[in-house]
Specification:
Layout (H helix, E strand, L loop, with lengths): L2 H14 L1 H10 L5 H15 L7 H14 L6 H11 L3 H14 L2 H29 L1
Helix pairs in contact: 1-2, 1-3, 4-5, 4-6, 4-7, 5-7, 6-7
Length: 134
């Protein structure tokens, strides 16, 4: 592995969490391994690892771009990542409002629906975890 891969994996784990990355790595096959390496080195090792903007802003940009382009499958993953990047619910709402104006209300509406569902799942998991420790 390259230094860029190692750096990308560290950033990926920081942003998405060990549990998510461990599941993704366990599901990786010989067929998609080269693609996963590409993503780890470029998306995580170059773009997300850059000090050019803060993780909070990077989360907001990523969510807005995913919504604007209609790539809804990754929105829940990146909503979960906001708990580690510092992007607040208000930040996410602001990003999706930009999507509504510049890319279309239906895409922003779908992204908001996914965000609401994901935040509800996060909150339910936090309540369950609190009850388990009580």
């Amino acid at each position: 592995m390259t230094n860029r891969f190692d750096k990308g994996m560290a950033v990926r784990r920081h942003v998405l969490g060990d549990a998510h990355v461990d599941r993704a790595e366990a599901a990786k096959t010989a067929f998609d391994d080269p693609f996963q390496t590409l993503i780890t080195e470029t998306a995580w090792g170059n773009v997300w690892a850059s000090d050019g903007i803060a993780p909070r802003e990077r989360s907001m940009l990523t969510l807005a771009l995913l919504a604007a382009l209609g790539n809804f499958d990754e929105i829940p993953m990146h909503i979960r990542a906001t708990t580690r990047t510092g992007a607040s619910k208000q930040d996410v709402l602001e990003a999706f409002q930009h999507v509504a104006i510049y890319a279309g209300v239906p895409r922003a509406n779908q992204a908001l629906k996914l965000a609401r569902q994901t935040y509800a799942e996060i909150e339910a998991a936090e309540v369950a975890a609190a009850q388990d420790t009580a």
